[in-house]
Structure formats: structure tokens, C-alpha cells
Fold these 2 entries.
Entry 1:
Amino acid sequence: MSRGCCCSPQPHTRQLDVFRHSCNKLDAFDWLRNIKPPEVSPVSDIVEVRFKNSRKDFFRATPDMDLKTGDIVAVEASPGHDIGIVTLTGEVVRLQLKNKKVDPDSEEIRRVYRKAKVSDIEKWVTAVKQEDSTMFRSREIADSLSLDMKISDVEYQGDRTKAIFYYTADDRVDFRELIRVLADAFGVRIEMRQIGMRQEASRLGGIGSCGRELCCSTWLTKFTSVSTNSARTQQLSLNPQKLAGQCSKLKCCINYEDACYQDMLKDFPDTETTLLTRKGEATFQKMDVLRRMMCYSYKESPGHIVTISTERAKEIIEMNRKDQRPDDIEDYQGIEPTGPADNFSTESNNLEDSLTRFDKPKTAKKSKKRKKRSKANKNNRGNEQ
């Protein structure tokens, strides 16, 4: 699964049903696959190859290979060769090169050796099966050496001559002794790569509080800084347990709607301004940015909150500038806006939370029968008297 395979590749069968786009992390869709390339420009000889999790790279192939999406190939590595799966071919690779800012004429782009042979796939599958046990064993070794680090993932090279250990650490770690012990224990060349908390979460994957897969493991490739100012702008509760993701950092989705809130807040009056009325001074308490409503309370009665629209608040502020005061802020109380926000009124919420919301309504026939019974009982009582 970490390589984008729905099942383990079988060395002696065709690999037609192994690769599936739905199994990949940070998958790219080839939306130019049904469009013929222009005859003037030559066909791109560069393909995109994915390895474990979200690690991808570009390689140059020869025209006689005729590579397609899903082919398992042996590519140049340092040292030896590595095994990967082709994810993109054709004209869309040019756009990926431009997006990743890679020069297509660069000599640093490595080559595709061949399509993977039976012996290559056998060795590759054996190496992949050893990654979990290697990771657990390496954690025990790091703990025995008293190193303040966490080894979160291990990736073997396709020919099993090198292993990449991904780790997270708060401070600088001297792992020279660790490399010697790991090389003796596993008999391969060791490479250590430090990653951040967000990169670790993107490699491991998981389900977020929204009930969907983590954005960093499905489509998010650039990690921008997230600050608590964005949470304050959106009137979110500054609760670390709710704002933090699985990486123990602020959730990346806090930035998604921040620009929308920033644009809407430009039309809001200053919250530090006090509204002066003949009844008293009203101070700002809270706001609903999307509904454009602001809540104020008088200093004499802070528990009584009055909700007004932003236009009403601006009107009162303008009156105060002219040394005029309204009788009461409630005279300028805003009307509830019409639109999608009305669907979430307090009445509908009370009905949704009611315990009898699933009860069947009383039919008209039953109510008529009950009325007849009550009349008959009254008549019987009158006759008895």
C-alpha cells in the first residue's frame, strides 16, 4: 500500500491490477491523457516515478521502452538501482516539471534502466516486507544508545543495498554511533533523513477530526506556517486540543478560510469603539462574521447581550461623532438576515435536539375519534345527573 499497490506484485504474472490511483498518497491525475500532443513539439522522454509513500522523482527514459502508468521500473540510484512505479507519462510531465521548478534539460535527471524483471520484483518485495521489523529494531537500538530521536519510517532501496531511516528530533542528534550499529545489524548502507512533524504525519497518514483522510497525505504538498491569529480571526476557541492536528501542530485547514474572513472583516467597524447611548455605554462582546452581526452589552448589565448588524453599528458610531446619542441600542437592533443562515436558527436546533423528533405525528382521524369520545362522556355524565 505504501508504494501505491492494491496488492503485492507477483513476479511471474503481469502487473495490470497492481497499481490503482485510489491507493496512492499525493496522487496526480493525468488530465491530458485523451489529448493528442502537438506534432511540432517532441514527445517528452521524462516520466514521473513514485516510491514509498509520497516520495517521487523524475527520470529520463528511452523511446523504445514505451512506458505506461503503473509499470514497475528499475531506475538509477546511488549506489545501485531502485524499484519504483510510473505515475505520469507524456505531456503532463512537462507541467509537473514546471510546477516543481525542474529543468527538463538538466543532466542531474537520472535514467530509467529497464522494466523490472522477475528477479528485481522478487528482491523488491522481500525488502519491503522487512521494513516494519527493521523500524522496530532500529528504535530499540536508538533507545539503547540514549538518543533523543524517533525513527518514524524506514525505506529499503529496490536492490536492498541501502536503507533510508526517517526520524524526527527536537534538537541536533549525533547519530554516528547509531549508523555503525545499524550497518552491522542489517548489513546495508545507512542514510539518515530528518523530517518535521508535519512531514511525519503526511508519511504515516490517518483520519482527521473531520472524518476524512489527512490533507497532507492526500493532496497537500506545501506546508505553510499556521498561527493563532488565523484562529482568532475566525472566532475559534483557542483550545490546543481542538486546534492541533495529529502532528501536534496547528491544523493546516485553519488557513483555508482565513483570506475570506480577512476580506469580510475589512467592512466591520472597530471593535474597540464604544457605542454611546442615552441608556448607557455599550461595549463589544462577540461577532458572527459570516452573518455580519455584532453583539454588544451595556456596562450596567453585562449579562444582557444585544445583537445588531454591522450597518446599525456604523450608524450609531456616525451619530456619536456628531455628538448625537440614540435613546437605546435596541432601537437599532438588526433584523435577522434571510438566507441559508436561517436554516440554523435556534428553533430548528431545539427541534433537532428534541427526544420526540422521531415520534409519528397524530393523524386527523385519531384526533376526531378522541373528540367524539370526550363529547359522549360529557353527555353520559349529564344524563346521569
Entry 2:
Amino acid sequence: MNDILLLGKLTLIITTRCNLKCALCCEYVPQNKPFPDMTLDEEQKILEAVFNVVDRVHTLHLSGGGEPFLHKDLPALIDAAFEYESRFERFMLFTNSTIPVSDDLLAALGRHKDKTLVHASDYGIHPERTAEIYKILNANGINTRVLKYYGEAQDFDGWVDFGDYKSRGRTKAELNTVFSNCAVTRDMHGNWRTRDGTLHWCSRSQRGLELGLLPMFNDDFVDLLDKNTTCEHKREQIRRIMGNQHLQACDWCSGDQGTGDHSKRYPAAVQL
């Protein structure tokens, strides 16, 4: 049993398009051209590769650097994810609560509602649309968690600024501190993410590499689609990352994720 490889959370980044332009977007979506949306075929290949290497996932998450409700094939992507239902405990979607729920999406969520959680951020933008979305989800028995991100008493006290992608020149001890204090490590034990089959511990590593803003830190990720590497070696790579004291990408981050310093918290979703 000790050899079971479990990921706490795995995010498939199905889109990097968004209808909002948040100044402190941790994915830097407003500042960059979106990649093509993940296709159903790509999702199936990635999921097959994941579950050839990983035994179980606690939370399987379809999201993105953008808004997943914009993806025209989201219902089909949800159904395809549930082909692996026996391998995960919970299915999650994120939404910024501004895109209406289509009939097809509602039907797909209904088919799988026993394991599904819709994680809905309420930014106080288009409140009438947001209220209608929550009403429809609740009326159809879809488990929805709403996080308030406007006005007073914002969830998590607001957002943090991950800063520019630049090396801070931190020492090994400083990198270890940044990594251990990060909410991804401390609270989530890894926010594993992939858009193209390269599996990363966190969004800073994954997004920085695909945008060409980080050097190629080969020890910070695992290429699940590499046909020249065995499944066992990929398992070893994942376990090594899990046991790391820091990532190289930690030097290219503000290090404020998970901070308790309220002076480093900012109002969420301020629009450019």
C-alpha cells in the first residue's frame, strides 16, 4: 500500500481564455495571447498518461488560466473525465460566475453531481448574472461553493501579487522557506497542473515555462507524454518533486502565496 502514488489535486488546464481582465491574475491571462483550447482528444491522451503513472487523484479539476465555462466542449470534457471516476474522489470546476450555464453543461453536471463541486468565485461583477447562475446550479442539486471576492471580508483576505517573472537570487535556505511557507505546499501538498502533458507542482512553474518566462528547469516537472521514459521513472520523478525542499521556480516568484501579512493582500479581480 505504501507504493500507491496519490496526487491530492490534479488540474487539467482546458482553456487560457477569459472574459475578465484581472490585474493580479496569477496566470497572467490578460497580458498574454491564449493557447488553443484543449480538445477532447488531447484531454483523453493526457488522462490516459496520468493514470498510467498515478494510481489515484483526490480532486480532478478542469479549469484553466481562463474561464472553463467558455469552452464549447466542456460537457464532453466532463463526461470523458468521468471515464476515470473510479480513480478520483472528487471532480471540481472553477468559474468566475459570469458565464451563463448552458443546458448541455447543466445536464453534464447533473449526470455526475454526486462527485462534483463547482467552485464559484463571486467578484461582484454582473451580480444579476451571478445570482442566476447560483440559482440554476442550486435548483439542480449541483454542489456549489461560493467564495466572495468583493467589498469587505473577502475570502482569503483578497489576492496576492506573484510579481514579475525574474530571478530573486535567493539562497537555498531562502528558497526552502519560500517553498515550505507557500500555500501550495503547506495547505495543498501540491497543486499539480498540466495543459500539454507536462506535469508541474504549481501554476508558477507551469505557466512560466509555457509562456517562455522561466528557464527550462527540468527537475521541476514531469513529461507524462514522453515515450522514451518508463512509467516507473515518471513515478520516481513525481515522488522526487513531492520530496523536494524547493523548486527552482520558487526563485522567480514573489513568495507571497499563503502569506498572513495583510499588507501583501490586495482587492481581488480589479479589472485592467
